[in-house]
Amino acid sequence: MSNDVSNLEGSEELGGQKVRLYPVTRIQGRADIEIIFTPYHEVSEARFRALEVRGLDRLAVGMPALRVPQVLSRICGSCGPFHQLASCMALENATGAVLPAAAGTVRELLCWLWLAHSHLLSIIYTVLPDLALPMSDMAVRNITGIYMVEQEAVSRLFRIQAAFAEALGTVAGTLVHPAMVVPGGVSSIPDVRTLSHTAELLEGCEDDLRETLRLLEMLIKRDAQMTFTGTTLEGHYMAATVEGVPFPLGDEVTVKPFGEGEPVVLSHRQLLDGMVEAPVQWSYLVPVSLKGADHLLTGPLSRMNMGYGPDTKWADLECNKCVEQWGRPLDREFLAYMALMLEVIRAWEKSRLLLEEWSPAGGVACAAPEFSAASGVSVVDSPRGVILHSVSVDGSGIVEAYKVVSPLQFNCPMMNRHLSGIARKVVTGIEITDAVAQRLQFAVRAFNPCVPCGTH
Amino acid sequence: MYIATVALCACGGCHNSLLAAGEPFVSLLSEHTISFSSYLFDRRTISPSDVVLATGGIRNHEELEIAREIERTSRKVIAVGSCAVYGGLPGARDREEPPAVSEGAGLPEMLENVMPLDSIVGVELYLPGCPPPPGLILESLKSLEGRYEPPHFDGTVCSECPRTVEVKPVKSWSLHPGCGVPEGSCLLNHGLLCLGPVTRGGCLAACPLEGSICIGCRGPSDMVLSSQLHSMYSDMVKYVTLSTASRREKVEKKLSAVLETIYLFTRRDPVIRAKVKERVPGE
Prior knowledge:
The structure holds 2 protein chains of 2 kinds.
Chain A: E1 10-13, E2 16-21, E3 31-37, E4 43-50, H1 56-59, H2 68-72, H3 80-95, H4 101-132, H5 143-149, H6 151-172, E5 181-182, E6 185-186, H7 192-203, H8 206-226, E7 236-242, E8 245-246, E9 252-257, E10 264-267, H9 268-274, E11 275-277, E12 288-290, E13 296-298, H10 300-306, H11 313-326, H12 335-356, E14 374-382, E15 385-393, E16 399-405, H13 407-426, H14 434-445, H15 451-455
Parallel strand pairs in A: 7-13
Antiparallel strand pairs in A: 1-2, 2-3, 3-4, 5-6, 7-8, 7-9, 9-10, 11-12, 14-15, 15-16
Helix pairs in contact in A: 4-6, 4-12, 5-6, 6-7, 6-8, 7-12, 8-12, 10-12, 11-12, 13-14
Chain B: E1 2-7, H1 13-19, H2 23-30, E2 33-37, E3 49-55, E4 58-60, H3 61-73, E5 74-80, H4 82-86, E6 110-115, E7 125-127, H5 134-144, H6 157-160, H7 206-209, H8 222-226, H9 232-244, H10 248-257, H11 259-262, H12 270-279
Parallel strand pairs in B: 1-2, 1-3, 3-5, 5-7
Antiparallel strand pairs in B: 4-6
Helix pairs in contact in B: 1-5, 9-10
C-alpha cells in the first residue's frame, strides 16, 4: 500500500495516461479510483474499482439451507442483518413458509433499529468529517479532529448511536451479525420488559436528534455553496415499497426516473428477471442495471425522493422542507447525506410506533420450513439500498444455486458516470492534489459504497 | 502511541464493531495519533505504528503486500476477528475461480488459499469472533497501552450461557429452532446443534441467549486448542453423547454430516487442520 496522491503511478492506456487514487478512504472495503486521460491530458473517464472478492454466495451452494442465512450475514459488516433477512425471506419464498405475525413485527422493529444504527455510524465517521471540515488538512479531517474542537456535537451523535446500539443489543443480542432472524421467523420474541426498555432508550434521543438535524442542515447549506459543483444525478431511482411508500420489507420494487416519465412497479421476481448484469474487465464488481433503466440509484436518497408517508410526521415534514429548498427531484449528491439523517428520524419514529402499538409479547416465533425442490427470491431495502437474494434448494434442503445482488452493483453505473462528470470538472492534470482527491472521494461517498457487500 | 487499523479480506464487521464502541473509542483515539485507517482517516500510506488492529485474512496478492508492510512497520499487532485469526469464512472452502477480469487491469490476483494473518505477521494478541464484541476490542487496545491485562476467556460459550442443560434423549437433530425454544432450556436438549460446548467464550453467549445456535464464530476453546487429544469435532461428539444419553456412533454419524459447519470459521488454521485430519476420515 505505497500509493499516495503525490506518488501516483501513470501508465499508458488508450493513447493517454492513467492515474490511480488508492485506496479510497472512509468507505467500507478496499477500492481505488482510476482516472483515464485523453492524449491531450483531459479526463476521459473516472471509475471506481473494487479490489477484493470473497465469494460467500458460492460458499452457500451445497450447504444445508437452514445454515445459509447466518453465513450470508457475513457478506457485509454493515448490512449483514439485511442479507440474513433477505436470505431467510428467499428460503421462505421457496418453501412457502408463512411468517407468524409476531415474528413479522419483530423483524420490522429490527430493520428500523439496524437501519438507524448503520446510518449513525456513517454519519459519525464519514459524513461529519466531509461536512464539518471539507477544506481542512487530511490529518484533522476525521472524527477525532472534530471531537477535539467540537466535543458536544460529536457526543450528542454518540449518545443517539449508543441508545440504538443498546436497543439492538437488548432485542437482538448482538450488533453486527445477529443470529436472531431465522427462516420462517425469529428465534425468540422479546418480552415486555425488553420492549419497554427499548422504548425508554429511544424516547431519550429526541432532543439530540433535533440538535443534530439542525447542525447537519446548517453544514449542508454552507457546503453546498462552498464546495459542490452543480452536477446532478440522472437516471432512475429505486426502492422497495408498499403502495409506493419505501419500506425495507416491501413486497414490490418501485423504479422512477429522475426526469420525466412514469414509475414502474415490479414484483421481486420481476426485478430478478429484468436485471441485466454487465461484468467489466477492470473491476471485481459486476454492475447491474434494469432493462430500460441503465443508470440506477438505490439507497437513502432514492427513498427520500419517494417520500416517507404520513405515519412518520417529523421525517415527512423535514423531507418536504428539503424539497421546498432544493426542488424535486432531489438529485444532488450532498442531499444523500441529509437523507441519512432523515432516515434515522424516520426509523426512530417507526420504531416508537411499533413499540406503542405492540400486541402482547409472546406468540409464535417461527414456522419451521419444510423443503421440497423449489426456488425463491426476495428483496430487502437495506441502509445502502436494494438487496436481492435468489435461491434454489433440492428436496432435502440443500442449496443448489444462490445469487446475491447488492446495492453497490445497482449503483455502480450511475456512480461511475457521476464520478466521471466530477473528474472532468475538477481534475486539471495528472497531478491530483488532496483537495481534488477529497472532491472525487466525496462523489463516491455520496453513494455510500460497500465493497465487501458489492463483491460478496 | 501511533494507532492504525487495517482491513484485509474482511466484511467490515470487525471494523464496525470497533466503531460501534462509540465515544470511548474516539476519546481514546484523540489521546493518541492515528497513523493509518482507511475507515477513519484520509491518509493513504501505511506509516510506522505502535499498535495495528488488523482485520481479515489474506486472500490476494495485494493483501499479502499489506500484511508484509504491517510486519515491517509495526511494533504490536492485534488480530481482530476470526478471519484474521483463523482465515474465517472465506477459507471455509478451497479456492474457487474468481470472476474473469483482464490480466492487464491491475486487479489483485487471488492466492491459492486464504491465510490467517499470523502466516505473515507476528501477532501480539488474538481476538477471535465474528465479530468480537465492541468492548472486547476496546479493552484489547487499552491493554496494549499498558493500562490493563489483555482480555482472555478460556471458558466456552456454554460457560457463559444461562440456559440449563439436562441429560435427556433427543429425537432428532436440526439447525433450526422450530417454533422456538423455551427460555432457560439448553438448545442441545431441543435437538439444536449448538456449538457452544466447544467454542471460546467472551461473547456472553449472545446467540444462544436469543434462542439461536452458536455457530462457533469465536473458534475453539483453550481446551480444544491446547491438546492433541481434543478437536472441535471429537469434543462435540463427547458432549452431545453425554448430554443426550445417545450412542456415540449415532452422534458421530450425525455430526460428520454437518462437519463443514463445525469448521466454518477455522478451516484454514494450520492447527485446526491438523486436528481435522486426525479425526475425520477422508478430510
